TrEMBL record, chain A:
Residues 1-39 form the signal peptide. This is Amino acid/amide ABC transporter substrate-binding protein, HAAT family. GO terms for biological process: amino acid transport. The keyword Phosphoprotein does not apply. Keywords: Signal. It comes from the Bacteria. NCBIfam families: urea_ABC_UrtA.
UniProtKB/TrEMBL annotation, chain B:
PANTHER family: ABC TRANSPORTER PERMEASE PROTEIN, BRANCHED-CHAIN AMINO ACID TRANSPORT SYSTEM PERMEASE PROTEIN LIVH. One of its GO terms (molecular function) is transmembrane transporter activity. Its main location: membrane. It is a multi-pass membrane protein. This is Amino acid/amide ABC transporter membrane protein 1, HAAT family. GO terms for cellular component: plasma membrane. Keywords: Amino-acid transport, Cell membrane, Membrane, Transmembrane, Transmembrane helix, Transport.
Length: 419, 308
């Protein structure tokens, strides 16, 4: 640079003006550096923080059966990191991510999280998707005092000092949906259907208590099918026979596709709303595989839909499509994953430090006004205050938002009276 | 539990349950036939069977796109073409795999198990790299959607009927090939006594390759048909593999008739129990019964009596 400066001084006035600009710029950088605290100050625990970079981890399955679901989360986290870097990074440091593959295998998740925390000394990890993978890494994060930003809506019943849950816990997602069905659609009878593992079972336990105790309605049946089950004709017959007002569905993965295709083939027109189908597990991502024509008319209860009309979301969707192509769709979890890096940035800046303990202490009451879903705030219990929306699926694979809760809903991972 | 329903409702439900059972039966037969041919006739445990099915499903997906963009007028017919494409593609890959891999492992059955399992992982990752990790949606032509309403209550899904007809055709085709054609005679001769078959002038290598390719091709057709009722993703094949093995092992490895009988037993048991119990319990009970019977009859329902 000095070489060029020398040349510039010997040339035209324009060059000289440019040079002045250069000097001003350099001064600004120097000043900027002065205002940026040194690495020792913002990092007293030996994390991978240098004068101009900070390392974080991304830990999702990009191979194996969960890759279908986790791909969107990885994309969202990378987009958020890019945007933060373009804005100048966190505490003046550019974020560098180290991506590890959990390979849809829970012990691998634990091993990779240990690698990220112990060898790479990352300042935060954005990752995990299934509850099983989160449970597998939890002891590692607590032992080595790491910070995990977990994006998926999940069953609750957990509150770790080392995890920020950016998706909704069960009561936030479920109760609003059931209330809506009862109030707006006059539902009196419900049929609960799910895949057979912890999330649907806990969700339906909460749903049943709410339906029976709070809504004074009736549960006609509660059923579970093994993960990956592909034949739903029997349960469709049962639904036809019992005629519930609402079928409340938490079927996941490949089973989803089979269920809705067979429902449609069995002559049930979901747009008739007899019965009304309400799902808590089908995001826009899943509809890609199911096919919009097979799911037209069902309702979903979650906090985010790609079609949300607010400005934040418009900008988010635009940026996402610019980076990953026009055909991409964005589901609830993808948006929640996008919040992770932003929430971490806000907490680090509030704490003025990358130290895990300080970030943790700073986290409650952190708010984001720029979230695509609108406004979110971190609760004492490390979950997010968020709104719940009801969307109606259309043949183009998008949800139309038909209802939005008036207020932010308080996260309540250990709901009393629902256990 | 039936007190609340009128007799006409009950009739309708039994009719529909019966149909659900039959439709499950044809699905089981369709997915197990290919495996049964390979396992039964060659003694090779093909762990990549599910991935051959998904190859068929992806071929269907591709064919639908080709039709959509090049000849939208003929879109209704694409599904038939897709099944032929699926058969050829899966069969060709099967022949290639037999030549490159299986052929070298005929005397090491446990190694074929490992090798084909590895192959299944490789194929899954290939699908993931080529088609993306997300599931793809295969749009059905209109004539395959919806149902035939026999009465107000009884509705028969058209795609269920389609799978049944397809299964019948393929089963009949396989029967003809195996038991009526010259080639089938060669296959059976090789199964019963390989050195002797070679001695009388049968090219056993060629027979092996064709058998393996046929089995894989049928898996491809099955996968193509299953795009109507299930998901198409890199790992979707894994959803079918357990049931497939169950049917083949329960039926007796080397008997195609056994495969059909076992598919019938398991599907009827499962769909009946699913109606009275929850889905998971039905599966548990089905597996318990299968395990129980296999303890008493380790060779499966039907077995081939030959002198070794």
């Amino acid at each position: 640079m000095r070489m060029r400066d020398k040349k510039a001084t010997t040339h035209s006035p324009l060059r000289r003006r440019l040079l002045k600009g250069f000097i001003a710029l350099q001064a600004a950088v120097v000043l900027g550096n002065a205002s940026i605290a040194s690495a020792e100050e913002v990092n007293t625990t030996g994390l991978a923080v240098t004068e101009d970079t900070v390392k974080v981890g991304i830990l999702h399955s990009i191979t194996g059966t969960m890759a279908i679901s986790e791909t969107g989360s990885v994309q969202a986290e990378k987009l958020a990191i890019d945007q933060i870097n373009a804005m100048g990074g966190v505490l003046g440091r550019q974020i560098e991510y180290i991506q590890e593959d959990g390979a849809s295998d829970w012990p691998t998740f634990a091993e990779k999280s240990r690698k990220l925390l112990v060898n790479d000394k990352v300042a935060a990890v954005f990752g995990c998707w299934t509850s099983a993978s989160r449970k597998a890494v939890l002891p590692v994060f607590e032992q080595y005092n790491g910070m995990l930003y977990y994006p998926t809506f999940y069953e609750g019943l957990e509150e770790s000092p080392n995890v920020i849950y950016t998706g909704q816990e069960a009561t936030q997602q479920i109760l609003e949906g059931l209330d809506w069905a009862s109030r707006e659609k006059g539902a009196k009878t419900f049929y609960l259907l799910g895949s057979d593992y912890i999330w649907p079972r806990t969700s339906n336990k909460i749903a049943r208590k709410h339906i029976e105790n709070k809504l004074g309605a009736k549960v006609l049946g509660e059923e579970y099918y093994p993960l990956g089950h592909t034949q739903f004709n029997s349960v469709i017959n049962k639904i036809k026979l019992r005629k519930p007002d609402v079928v409340f569905i938490s079927v996941v993965g490949g089973s989803n596709v089979a269920f809705y295709k067979q429902l449609k083939a069995a002559g049930i027109d979901m747009t008739q709303e007899k019965p009304l189908f309400v799902t808590i597990s089908v995001t826009e991502d899943e509809i890609l595989g199911i096919g919009g024509e097979n799911i037209d008319g069902i309702y979903a209860s979650m906090k985010y839909f790609q079609s949300l009309p607010n400005d934040n979301n418009q900008a988010f969707v635009k940026a996402f499509k610019e980076k990953y192509g026009d055909d991409i769709v964005i589901g609830d979890v993808t948006q929640a994953a996008y919040l992770g890096p932003w929430l971490w940035k806000a907490a680090v800046e509030k704490a003025g430090s990358f130290d895990i303990d300080k970030v943790r202490a700073a986290s409650p009451e952190i708010e984001l006004t720029t979230a695509p879903e609108g406004y979110v705030r971190i609760h004492e219990n490390h979950h997010l205050w968020s709104k719940t929306r009801i969307g109606k699926a259309h043949t183009d694979g998008q949800y139309e938002v038909v209802y939005e809760s008036a207020d932010l809903i308080e996260p309540n991972p250990f709901p009393e009276g629902y256990q | 539990m039936f007190a609340d329903y009128s007799s006409s409702e009950l009739m309708a439900i039994f009719a529909m349950q019966g149909f659900a059972g039959l439709s499950l039966f044809s699905i089981f037969v369709l997915m197990a036939l290919g495996l049964a041919i390979i396992f039964g006739q060659m003694g090779v445990i093909n762990m990549a069977h599910g991935e051959f099915m998904i190859l068929g499903a992806y071929m269907t997906y591709l064919t639908s796109h080709v039709f959509e963009s090049l000849m939208p007028g003929l879109y209704g017919a694409y599904f038939i073409v897709a099944m032929v494409v699926a058969f050829v593609a899966a069969g060709a890959l099967g022949a290639l795999v037999e030549w490159a891999l299986i052929k070298r492992l005929y005397h090491r059955p446990l190694d074929t198990l490992l090798a084909t399992w590895g192959l299944s992982l490789i194929l899954q990752q290939c699908y993931r790299s080529i088609f993306g990790a997300r599931e793809v949606g295969v749009t059905l032509p209109d004539w395959l959607m919806g149902s035939v309403a026999l009465t107000d209550m009884i509705e028969i899904p058209i795609n269920g009927l389609f799978v049944m007809v397809l299964t019948l055709l393929i089963a009949a085709g396989v029967y003809y090939l195996m038991y009526r054609s010259n080639w089938g005679g060669q296959v059976r001769a090789v199964v019963q006594n390989r050195p002797m078959a070679g001695a009388v002038g049968i090219n056993t290598e060629k027979v092996d390759r064709a058998t393996f390719a046929l089995g894989c091709g049928i898996a491809g057709v099955a996968g193509s048909a299953f795009t109507m009722i299930g998901s198409t993703g890199p790992t979707s094949g894994q959803l079918y593999i357990v049931d497939t093995f169950l049917v083949v092992v329960f039926g007796g490895a080397s008997s195609l008739l056994g495969t059909i009988a076992s598919a019938f037993t398991i599907s009827q048991a499962q769909s009946t129990m699913e109606f009275f119990l929850s889905g998971s319990m039905a599966k548990v009970l089905t597996l318990l019964v299968v395990v129980g019977i296999l303890m008493l009859r380790p060779q499966g329902l039907f077995s081939l009596k030959i002198r070794r």
